[in-house]
Specification:
- By secondary structure, this protein is of the alpha+beta class.
- It has five domains: 80 residues, Alpha-Beta Plaits, CATH 3.30.70.260; 67 residues, Ubiquitin-like (UB roll) (Roll), CATH 3.10.20.310; 63 residues, no CATH class; 61 residues; 68 residues, no CATH class.
- Helix content is 24%, strand content 45%.
- The protein is elongated, with a radius of gyration of 42 Å.
Length: 409
């Protein structure tokens, strides 16, 4: 703050050659002439002094027989004096300051933090429906109203804070991690049927009447749990039926057929080392490519683009970057027996990893790899245990209407 005060009023850098510099500095202190950045250089003292203090040094120099040399003039008064004839500069400075004041009245950056399940783009899209977007006026944004509307639109928001800082709108949200989205109406009556054929190794019924049990053989489409519940009277006789949404955790052991084949010969692009580089400019859906056309028939193009953005979420449809063509030639190669078996084994391991990620347990692997007539083949069966079953709606029979017979007495 002190540096800006000196710069706004102006100061000079001087060199003082005095037979008694201590007396010179003591007189400056006595007359309250402020000096700073005092250094000893080349058998003289250099220091900064204000413009008003510089004019008061004349009497002190006469008393101490000192000589003063001005090394530099700094500050706004000297800056304006040196540029007094550059009118266009001051006009531009004024217009820039005016433009800055006008732009500071708008929101140019909308920052959202704390959101996990709801994406920033979905929140920004909803803000546009509320007429809150990049470039809107700050006095048109009601932070309290905005926070209330966000809580109504996103039910899993337990807390929302909206505030304006400079030209930024900062939204801080907190989500309920245990919130579950409603996926439709409440389920009606349904049966739980098998979508696989095999042996049931585990079965836990949540609701409904189980038809199968652990160790039974089930076929595809066969009912595992019925959605019909029997109602008994006091005599332990069926007096009616109730219907529910059948549900269970059923794991079935069955065999999967595995087959994968590929030729021993394959084509692979070999890059020649020739390339053509150019520049790409894109505005919206229009783009301009500044690149010489190559003479190759087969090549790969790698384009790297950078998008123009003013803030983290305020992006303009303007791109620029480079585009490089790499020439290549297709050549034919042949797998060795070890390479072919390794590739078939890698393909099989990738499938097993995918199944395990889906919760499928691998009990047996009877896949054999062989090479015949230029084709590598891997075939066999996999014994797996996986979750089975799906709900199918059931038709609830309508109860017959009661008849009221008129009896003549």
């Amino acid at each position: 703050m002190q540096d800006w005060k000196h710069y706004s009023k102006g100061y000079v850098r001087i060199r003082v050659c005095a037979p008694s510099p201590e007396r010179f500095l003591n007189l400056c202190s006595y007359h309250k002439i402020q000096v700073w950045n005092l250094v000893y250089r080349e058998q003289a003292y250099e220091m900064n002094v204000t413009i008003a203090g510089f004019y008061r040094l004349k009497g002190i120099c006469r008393k101490t027989h000192s000589r003063i040399k001005i090394l530099g003039k700094y500050g706004l008064p000297f800056f304006f004096y040196r540029n007094r004839k550059r009118k266009a500069f001051f006009v531009g400075f004024f217009l820039g300051f005016l433009l800055l004041c006008l732009l500071s009245r708008h929101i140019w950056n909308i920052h959202v933090e704390g959101n996990v399940h709801n994406s920033t783009q979905s929140i920004l899209k909803y803000l546009e429906e509320l007429e809150v977007r990049h470039g809107c006026l700050k006095n048109e944004v009601d932070c309290a109203f905005l926070a209330e509307k966000l809580r109504e639109e996103f039910p899993d928001f337990t807390w929302v804070s909206a505030k304006i800082s400079g030209s930024r709108l900062i939204l801080e949200v907190q989500e309920n991690e245990t919130y579950q989205w409603e996926t439709g109406e409440k389920p009606g009556a349904s049966d739980f049927i098998s979508d696989k054929e095999g042996i049931i190794v585990s079965m836990i019924t949540r609701s409904g009447t189980p038809v199968k049990k652990t160790g039974d053989l089930c076929k595809k489409g066969e009912a595992l749990v019925r959605g019909q519940l029997d109602l008994y009277n006091d005599n332990k006789e069926i007096s009616g039926y109730a219907y529910t949404h059948a549900d269970a955790d059923v794991y079935v052991q069955h065999d999967l057929e595995y087959y994968h084949a590929f030729p021993m010969t394959y084509e692979k692009p070999v890059y020649t080392g020739k390339k053509k580089k150019g520049y790409v400019f894109q505005v919206g859906s229009y783009y301009l490519t500044l690149k010489p056309k190559g003479k190759w028939q087969e090549f790969d193009t790698v384009t790297r683009l950078t998008q123009l953005r003013l803030t983290e979420n305020f992006k303009l449809p303007v791109f620029w970057g480079t585009s490089v063509d790499y020439a290549y030639e297709k050549q034919t190669f042949t797998y060795t027996e070890e390479e072919a078996k390794a590739r078939a084994l890698d393909k099989q391991k990738a499938l097993l990893k995918t199944l395990e990620e889906k919760g499928v347990q691998i009990l047996g692997n009877r896949v054999k790899i062989g090479i015949h007539k230029g084709v590598c083949t891997a075939k066999g069966t996999l014994t797996v245990v996986e979750k089975a079953g799906q709900q199918v709606p059931v038709q609830i029979p309508q109860e017959p209407a009661e008849r009221n017979a008129d009896v003549d007495e």
